[in-house]
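Onboarding guide, step 5: your first structure request.
Type a short instruction followed by the sequence, for example:

Predict the 3D structure of this protein.
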Amino acid sequence: MIGIESLGWGQAATVIGIVLLEAIVLYVGYGALEKLLGSKLTAAIRGDQ
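The system replies with structure tokens like these:
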């Protein structure tokens, strides 16, 4: 496995940027999904209808 330390500065910055962007997209996506379905799913689990 190649570590970031063996990459050049530009490549390392690109990898870090991609990972950060992926984390942001997942955070926003899961937040939106929870906002849309969270209360419905909770009500279904509790048996409220």
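Each response can be followed by summary notes, for example: The chain has a mean pLDDT of 87.
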